[in-house]
Amino acid sequence: MALNVIMMGPPGAGKGTQAGRFARERGLLKISTGDILREGINAQLPVALKAKELMDRGELVDDATMIAIVRERLMRPDAQPGFVLDGFPRTVAQAEALDRIVAERNNGPLLIVDVRVPQRELVRRLAGRLICKKCGTNAEPAKEGAPAAAACAKCGGRLVQRADDNAQVVKERLKVYERATKPLVEFYRGRPTFRIVNGAQAQERVAHELDTVIDDAAVVGATPQGTPAPVKAVASGKAAQA
Ligand code: AP5
Ligand code: MG
What we know:
By secondary structure, the chain is α/β, with parallel strands linked by helices. The chain has a domain at 3-118 and 194-222: Rossmann fold. Helix content is 46%, strand content 15%. It has 9 helices and 9 strands. The chain has helices at residues 15-26, 33-42, 46-57, 63-74, 92-105, 119-128, 167-181, 183-189, 203-221, and strands at 3-8, 29-32, 82-86, 110-116, 131-132, 159-160, 194-198, 231-233, 239-241. The strands form 3 sheets. Strands 2-3-1-4-7 form a 5-stranded parallel beta sheet, sandwiched between helices. A two-stranded antiparallel sheet has the order 5-6. A two-stranded antiparallel ribbon has the order 8-9. α4 runs parallel beside α5 (92-105). The longest helix has 19 residues, at 203-221. The chain starts with a strand and ends with a strand. The relative contact order is 0.17. The structure holds BIS(adenosine)-5'-pentaphosphate (AP5) and magnesium ion (MG).
């Protein structure tokens, strides 16, 4: 059964950081809709250039465009072992479309992780983030007392602030998240494969918590109707989950 993960959370929660690591470690396809749009802008694709105006204001790109992008990726053969979605779905309409795509794929349920971080910390992270102008990778945060890196560790590209990371646009992105995306928590909360992770810890601790909850949700999701597996008696007399 495929591992079909959604990484949810507000701007700056660490979705991209954790989605990239998890996908790499598990050999899954990472689909980051923000990265796809930014790559499209660099390549001057008309659909992405149209989206740029909205992104630069902190607003959402229309559902039809985003659903078409994600549907095309999820139907590719390299998505069949599973995927990690970062930044999608962001509206109830996108979530409903994703349910239909997952039903069509028919190889495993969605495992939903909501990464929680207080707003003050989100603003702090986004104000300090630099990305590579060439490959889009987040720069490694500078170690205490050390000078900030001058170039991308991966490709040597120039490090710049993301176009939508200035204070005014961050404020708007957080508002849009509260209005359009946070309601998705209610959309997913009742599912047995929904999990919450504390994203306001060191990256390694977030990673450990994430791995644990995703593996647990995958076990639950693999049982009929997504209900917990029956409890088996073990030799010690204690009970264990199958
Ligand atoms: P997108 O690129 O998805 O941006 P976002 O959701 O605002 O999220 P970010 O990428 O800013 O944050 P992140 O959670 O990935 O955090 P990161 O790992 O980088 O979308 C951009 C725009 O595209 C949208 O505004 C919209 O216009 C459009 N768009 C995209 N998808 C769309 C959709 N489905 N529908 C409609 N429109 C769409 O981490 C942030 C920083 O914190 C980094 O510097 C990182 O190093 C650091 N950090 C990470 N983890 C930790 C930690 N544990 N402790 C300390 N620092 C940490
Ligand atoms: Mg991101």
